[in-house]
Amino acid sequence: MSTTIVVAATPTPNGDLHIGHLAGPYLAGDVYARYLRATGASVIYTTCTDDSQSYVVSTARRSGTTPRELCAASTAAIGRSLSAMGISMAGLPPIGDVYRRTVLEFVTTLYEAGRFRKRTVRLPVATRSGTYLFDGLVTGTCPVCLASSSGGACEACGHPNNYDELLDPRSTLDPDDPVSYRDTEILVLPMEEYRERLTAYYAAQAGRWRPHAMQLIGELLAGPLPEVPVTIPAGWGVPAPFPETPGQMLYPWIEAMPAVMYGTWWSAGDTAVPVDEHWRAEHHADVVYFHGYDNVYHWGLMDLVFLLAHGDRYVTPSANVCNEFYNLTGEKFSTSRGHLIRAADLLAEVPRDLVRFHLAHTAPEQARTDFTREGLRDTGYRRLSAPWNALAEAMSSVLHGLSGTLPVSPAGRRRAAAMLARFRGCYELPGYSMNRAAETVLTQLDRLRGLAGDPTVVPGDLVLETRTLLAGAAPILIDVAEAAGGDGVDLSLAAEPPVSVPVFRLPRLPEEASHETADHRDPSVPDLLPLPLSAGAGVRRRSVRDER
After folding, report:
1. How far apart, in Å, do the first and last CA atoms of the chain sit?
2. Parallel, antiparallel, or unpaired for β 117-126 and 179-190?
3. CA angle 36-42-48, nearest 5°?
4. Is the Cβ–Cβ distance between 252 and 14 less than 8 Å?
5. Which of 507, 179, 285, 510 is nearest to 276 (CA)?
6. Pick from 81, 161, 434, 461: CA 20 to 30 A from residue 91's CA?
7. 3-345 in CATH: which number?
């Protein structure tokens, strides 16, 4: 059996996570991985911190710390937040000698195969400090859509802006330091040389990507493809080993592919095999990426070219699941303005299953969506936990005095099969949608409450269909699923509905605290329902980015 490698966009360790980040690729990838495991598939769900990013340098400067100290503190915070949200990864792999060796072997192989070209490019420089400005070290105006943009790529339109393409550039380290330009020799990977293979790849992907992301790919293919920097004059990152570019670093974005290969190897736990073993083409792994629209260029095009540059050595992704931006009460999450809610703060106040369900229900899959205090309360308590617990009580009444295994009618089996098909349609690619899965949970929950109140209901039918609801909700509602699994309830999504089913009791979901309880809460605990905004340093991601 081949393995599915699920890759969530690699986080930059320049701060902790907020729910805008988690509502993007991390929860979506987790739900997909949990669904696959419930069908019996072999899954490795992984990511890897992106320590070399320039945003580490700019955030460290603003915070009065060093990039190394910031990476260490932020990686620990990110790991805690992923764990608290129940993201089913083995953890965040350490960025040490094995990581750096993996990156260097990946790029050195391409160098020795003659894939890189030496180019003289015009780079912006902070005149007084002499610092070369790229990616998070520079801000200006996107030359394509004219929105405010960092260097490298525009989060608004998704188009790249390398070298001197950004309009009105300013240093983020010192906005008063005037910007000049300097001709500099670097190594690049010419994307244009891979156009034929890229065109064939995207033709095969037709209908498998969400439309907005594929529209951007079409826009990029319509013009000359950019030359990707391989080396860059910088003071932070992995030193480039090439004699043509002494003193330069590897361009941070080109670490992504060897980084996730390393993350896959580390997460799999078998250190006896080569680091890139799981990605070798002969193993036929199914690779699925989860990332944000602002990284379609990186994960959807640039990283693909680096795989193709290795010839037929590696598999290429079978799907890119791309999310849009998540808003907070009508505006983008913003660390600089304190317009955010930290995952840790929210989870300290609101039960995890309810948070996961609301984020799944409102995740920005194909358009921007909005997180609100009222929405979380309405979805989590009124629409989910209250009717869920009412169903649990009704089941207890119907099953009073019954035990063992109950027969299921043909009609009950047909309804359970229809439920399974509906959930599978939500979780399978290319139509994967947490939104529809969460809405299906609510729809079936309402139906089963009515079924439980029907005096003619066949008890075995109610048990089977409720178990099917629980199995379909389990990739999202992980705590209630764990409670049921601990009681021996079969939550597999692989088998067809049986002719008989063991009796079980539906675990309850947390209910909303009474006003009296809320009035006597510990005042030191943040009041997140209603949810005030909590301020502090955030994290620049390869998916849902903050406004800085």
Report:
1. 45
2. antiparallel
3. 90
4. no
5. 285
6. 434
7. 3.40.50.620
Cβ count near 341 (within 10 Å): 22
Average model confidence (pLDDT) across the chain: 92
Question: Domain spans of the chain?
Answer: 3-345, 373-502
Q: What is the pLDDT of residues 254-309, one digit of tens each?
A: 999 999 999 999 999 999 999 999 999 999 999 999 999 999 999 999 999 999 99
404-457, pLDDT tens digit by residue?
A: 999 999 999 999 999 999 999 999 999 999 999 999 999 999 999 999 999 999
Count the Cβ atoms, other than its own, within 10 Å of residue 456.
Answer: 5
Tokens representing residue 371 in the block: 């997180």
Residue 184 to residue 151: CA distance in whole angstroms: 17
Between CA 121 and CA 228 the distance in angstroms is 11
Q: Stretch 317-345: mean pLDDT, rounded?
A: 84
Tokens of 397: 């009444």
Q: How far apart are CA 340 and CA 15, in angstroms?
A: 13
| Assigned fold of 373-502 | Isoleucyl-tRNA Synthetase; Domain 1 (1.10.730)
Q: What is the 3-state secondary structure (H, E, C) of 266-311?
A: HHHCCCCCCCCHHHEHHHCCEEEEEEEHHHHHHHHHHHHHHHHCCC
What burial letters (b/e) apply to 471-510, b meaning 16+ CB within 10 Å? bbbbbbbbbbbebbeeeebebebeeebbeebbebebbebb
Single-letter code of the amino acid located at 146: L
